[in-house]
Amino acid sequence: MGETVSLSRRRLLQAGAALGGAMLLPGMSQAVWAAGSDKPELQTVKVGFIPLTDCAPLAIASLKGFDKKYGITLVPSKEASWAAVRDKLVNGELDAAHVLYGLLYGLELGVAAKPQPMANLMTLNRNGQGITLSSDLQEKGVTNLSTLKTLVGQSAPGTYTFAHTFPTGTHAMWLYYWLASGGINPFDDVRTVVVPPPQMVMNMRIGNMVGFCVGEPWNARAINDRIGFTAATSQDIWPEHPEKVLGARRDWVEQHPNTARALVAALMEAARWIDASDDNKRETAQILSHRGWLNTKEQYLTGRMLGEYDNGIGRRWQDAHPMRFFEQGEVSYPWLSDGMWFLTQFRRWGLLKSDPDYLAVAQRINRIDIWKEAAQAVGGIAVPTQTLRSSKLIDGSVWTGADPAGYARSFAIQRIGA
After folding, report:
1. What residue range is the signal peptide (predicted)?
2. Rounded mean pLDDT of 172-187?
3. C-alpha distances in angstroms, 169 versus 161, 226, 272?
C-alpha cells in the first residue's frame, strides 16, 4: 500500500485535522477498514512462535481479542526450533512469525540459508535474554566473565562448549559479544553449538555444554533446577537492545499490506496492555505458562517479567532494563540502526565476506511505512523523527549507525577476512 491512502480514510484524516489534528481512534479506523478498500485482505493470519516469554504480544493479541478489533483472527503456531520457523516462513506455511532479529537479516542476505527477501514489521520486545553458566563451572571457581577467562585460558582451545539458538540469531550475537568483551575468542578459544531454546536446560543437565545464551524462561529454569546461574543478562551487554521482531516474507507484505498493518496494530495494542501494569504482566505470565504456550511453571516467568532478578548465586536486584514490550510505542519502532548493528556483527565474525550496503539493507527490510500506519490506527503513539539511535554497549563501544563498516572493524577480537 506504501503511501497510498484510500478516499474514505483520507476524508477521515481530513476530518481529524479539522478537529485539531487528533489521531484516529481505534474504533473509527476499524469501521473505515471494515467498509472500505483498507479492509484486511486475509481474515485469518497464521503466526509462528517459539515458546519464550517474549512471544507474549502474540498470546495477548489472540486471547484478548485485539486481533478481532482490527479485522483479523490470529492463528498462533507453536514451533520446535528457529530453523523450523525459518523454513515455514520461507515455504509459506506461516504468514508471519515471532522471530530472531538476526535470523531475519541472515535470511535476506543468504547467510546460513538460501537468500529470501524478508520484512521486519515491528520489534516485539527489548531486553530480557540471559547467559547461563553451569554449576560445574561454579565449582571450578567461575562466577563471572573474568574468572571464566582465567579458566578458558588455562585449558586447550575448544575444551568448553557453549550453546546459542541459531547461527545468525540474537543469542549467538549476545554470546559472542559478551565472551569477546572479556577477551575470549568465541571461535578459537571455545566451541559453540546450536540448541533449540526448550532443549537448553536438558542439554546442560546432561553435560553437553557449560554455558548457553537463550531467552526466558530457560535461564530462570536453570537456576530453579540447580544446574546453573545467570552470569549476564542481555541488557548488561546492550541496555535496551532489540530482540524478537515480527517477521514476514516481503512478497507476503506486498500482497497483503492491509493485513500486515492490522497485524502490527493488534500486536501494538497487546504490547501496550502487557506493559500497562504489573498485574497485567502477572496475568501474562500465567497465560504463557499454559500447555499451548510455554508449558512451564508460572513462577519461572513472573519474576523476570517484572524485572525482579536473582542470579542463583546470591545476587538479587530490580533490573533497570527489564523486558519491555511498549514504552509509549517506541519499543516496536523498527529502527534502521538496530538492523544495521546485526549486519556489523555478521561482518565482524566472518559470516559476511564483504561489507554490505548497511543502510540500504535495513531500509529494505524494516517496514517503517507499515509501522507508521499501524501506529496511527492504534493512536496515542509518538512517531520517532529519526531512523537511527545511539547505544553504548558493555565494552564501552558506542553504536550510532554511522560508519558501520568501520565499527565492524573496530573490535580487538574479530574474524574479518576469515
Report:
1. 1-34
2. 98
3. 18, 27, 26
pLDDT tens figures, 116-158 = 999 999 999 999 999 999 999 999 999 999 999 999 999 999 9
Helix segments in 256-411, DSSP class H: 257-275, 278-288, 299-305, 336-348, 358-365, 368-378, 404-408
The rounded distance, in Å, linking the Cα atoms of 325 and 346 is 26
Where in 210-253 does DSSP place strands (E)? 211-215, 228-233, 244-249
> What would the pLDDT profile of 275-332 be if each residue is shown by its tens digit?
999 999 999 999 999 999 999 999 999 999 999 999 999 999 999 999 999 999 999 9
By three-state DSSP, how is residue 187 classified? coil
CB 388 within 8 A of CB 396: no
CB 293 within 8 A of CB 55: yes
- Report H helices in 101-239: 101-109, 135-139, 145-153, 170-181, 200-205, 218-224, 234-237
Rounded Cα distance, 322 and 129, in Å: 10
First-to-last alpha carbon distance for the chain, in angstroms, is: 42
Orientation of helix 257-275 relative to helix 26-35, angle to 10°: 160
Kindly report the backbone phi and psi dihedral angles of residue 330, in degrees, each rounded to the nearest multiple of 5, phi listed first: -70, -30
